[in-house]
Amino acid sequence: MAEPQTWEDWLAYWRGVRDNDLNGNGDPSDEIPIALVGSPDGERSLTQLLNAFGIAASNDTQFCLLDDGTYTMVYEHPRYREFLTAMAGLYAEGILKEDYNAFTYAGIEKAMGDNTAGSVMTFAASAAQTETLRKNGASDALWLAVPPVAGPHGDRMIQERDLVSPMWCITAGAVQRGKAEDIVRLFNWMFTQEGADLYNYGIENVSWTRSEEGQPVLDPALVAGGFEEVRKAGINLEPFGGLWLSDAYMQCLFAGKPAEELAAPQREMYRGLFEVNEPHYYTQPVTHESEEYVARRTALITEGVCKLRDAAIRGEIAVDGFFEGYEALKAKGLTAVMEGAAALHMADAHEGSCR
To answer: Above pLDDT 70, what percent of the chain?
Structure first.
């Protein structure tokens, strides 16, 4: 089949995986049409399919921004009912497997390597499972990197990684000792050219030299050992964080080879990293941890609305039953969680506009 471009294309592909004993092992029931990484608490579930319905969710898939800028929970989004109905349909069809929300990255790579997965959403580096398939006898196997799933309204979205990690913070103790301004100056410097060069390449003429064109080139002996050796040399030092440049990533990952010289599995990894997703990234809304959220998250979200969502997807309750249960949770305090998070979002937006 051609690469899926529309929601109907994806449905046809998933049904084809389900119906045709794709791996040819004689068991028509062991194929996994689509595998997406979940989370142990069940909150982060089916993120990429939620995105396909135009819902730009937070990392935990619990919060979103509506078109008018309102910060709220994803269950308030005007397309959430359509999304939930579609997911219940995929589950009923056997496209979503019973353990759809229990996949880990390791579990997905295993399914990619043992020839049971038909499509996955995982790290681009997992394209290397092509080599596992070939070693196991599928000589013409090739995992292809493709753009995000297109939804029924044409949405193609993928969460962008946070530019600044949680390590980029200023503690109350640092503020009390008068160090906050110095820390902010360090953060700012890390995003200058000098700071980026140090973070990505190390010290000039020690771990890298400059080409005739003026571009940093990491020591070939250093990158030959991959990321482990590069990090042992103090480059990409995570406790400080920094602006990770694609060029440095390429040099570390592919030992300095240009994309056109990469073998097919590596080319697909490269495409997944730098090409097919590039037009589709969106900045994740923050999960604002208000007092209400911290105090009531487990009862109202993890053990509350998320359990209702899964029950609706598995057909244990109707979609209408989900929304009835959701309204009951709102009355029990979920509205206060939303309002507290929205208030923090407004405070952050106001503060950001003054900087």
So the answer is: 95
Distance CA 207, CA 219 (A): 5
CA distance 191 to 188: 6
pTM equals 0.84
Classify burial at 140, counting beta carbons within 10 Å of its beta carbon; exposed 0-12, middle 13-18, buried 19 or more.
Answer: exposed
Is the pLDDT at 355 greater than 50? The verdict is no
Whole-angstrom Cα distance, residue 143 to residue 245? 25
DSSP code of 282?
E
Structure tokens at 221: 């002996």
Rg over CA atoms, the chain:
23
Q: Are 116 and 107 in contact (CB under 8 A)?
A: no
CA pair distance 336, 111, nearest whole angstrom:
41
Long-range contacts of 31-34 (CB under 8 A, 24+ apart): 31/116, 31/117, 31/118, 32/97, 32/111, 32/116, 32/117, 32/118, 33/94, 33/95, 33/96, 33/118, 33/119, 34/95, 34/96, 34/118, 34/119, 34/120, 34/121
The pLDDT value given to residue 354: 36
pLDDT in tens, 151-165: 999 999 999 876 556
